Amino acid sequence: MNQNNRIFIAGCGGMLGEAIYNTFRTNYELYCTDLNVNDNWIDYLDFRESDKYEKMVINYKPKLLFHIGAHTDLEFCEKYPSDAIETNYNSVKFAVNLCKKNNIKLVFISSAGVFDGKKNIYYDDDLPTPISQYAKTKALSEEYIQSNLSKFLILRPGWMMGGGPNKDKKFVNKIFKQIKNNVQELNIVNDKLGTPTYTYDFANNLKLLIENNLTGVFNLVCEGETSRLDVAREMLKILKLSDKIKINEVDSNFFKNEYYAKRPLSERLENHKLNNLNLNIMRNWKICLKEYLNNNYKI
């Protein structure tokens, strides 16, 4: 396969990495790495070990480097800020310099969480205003990439959903675990707004951006504004459990001991640049949620 189609993926073992692997593998030559070798297409790499990271990338000679691994648990990042900086920022700085030296285009995954949530909706060119340790690491990475590279894609997903029971560590799987445990009631926050991002839609739209040789910062979320409460209600509707499980509306203080890291009131993003370029192929979050549940979860 042409070397121009070669992609090195660092941190490919999670929910997004799986979708990217399955979406890109037919048209691209991939070298997938992660700390957790949980699939036979993944090789071991701790990308914080810069010497090994550099050696593997240089030996592979990729056209693109996807740096997608990170500590995404907000409480972990608050509790271990130096670990969060090392994993989520210092490794990115190294990846940037590696790309610069070897003429490689960098693809970096940021987050809707880089904003403080004081606006209802955020656009691609809005500047980050982070309020948590996790968000700070992502905002610092965005800034460093833009200051030091000319060939890059920074992508901001919203509330990620994908990966199924084995890889999904996010909201949908947390709710489904409770459902599988036969709960009669669910306590769902009514004060958090956002936009889901289905991993496969994300991967397909990323592929489109790469094929069009685009550079810059892009919001990449499903269509349709929503909330945690709406997502939980839609889950019960899809699973035909609306009459069997009661939802109790609570505010975020209800979970303040468990989820103590600051979270924005609104993490709603709009795919403004994608729309302007006529390259927005992200579907409505309800369609994606139904597809995701039907493909991965059985009651």
Could you characterize what this model shows?
The protein is of the alpha/beta class and 299 residues long. The chain has a domain at 3-162 and 197-224 and 267-282: NAD(P)-binding Rossmann-like Domain (Rossmann fold), CATH 3.40.50.720. The protein contains eleven helices and 13 strands. Strands 3-2-1-4-5-6-11 form a seven-stranded parallel beta sheet, with helices on both faces. Strands 7-10 form a two-stranded parallel ribbon. Helix 5 links the parallel strand 5 (105-109) and strand 6. Helix 1 (15-24) packs across helix 8, helix 4 (81-102) runs parallel beside helix 5 and helix 9 (228-238) packs across helix 11 (285-296). It is globular. The protein starts with 5 loop residues before the first strand and ends with a helix. The mean pLDDT is 96.
Radius of gyration: 19 Å
CATH homologous superfamily grouping of the domain at 3-162 and 197-224 and 267-282: NAD(P)-binding Rossmann-like Domain
Outline type: globular
Strand ordering within the main sheet: 3-2-1-4-5-6-11
Helix content: 40-55%
What's the pLDDT, averaged over the residues?
Answer: 96
Helix-strand pattern: EHEEHEHHEHEEHHEEEHEEHEHH
